[in-house]
Amino acid sequence: MWGSGRIKSFSNSQKSNTIFLHN
Predict the structure, then answer these.
(1) Sign of the CA dihedral 9, 11, 14, 18?
(2) Measured between alpha carbons, how far is 18 from 8 in angstroms, rounded to an integer?
(3) Region Disordered: what ranges (predicted)?
């Protein structure tokens, strides 16, 4: 269960990084 939560958190981090880089 914590594994899927960690993947979700990692995915959110990836999105934030992408938005930051594009800005």
Answers:
(1) negative
(2) 15
(3) 1-23
- pTM > 0.85: yes or no: no
C-alpha–C-alpha distance, residues 5 and 19, integer Å: 21
For residues 16 and 3, give the distance between their C-alpha atoms in angstroms, rounded to a whole number. 20
Structure tokens at 22: 């594009």
pLDDT digits (tens, 9 = 90+) for 1-23: 556 767 777 777 777 777 666 55
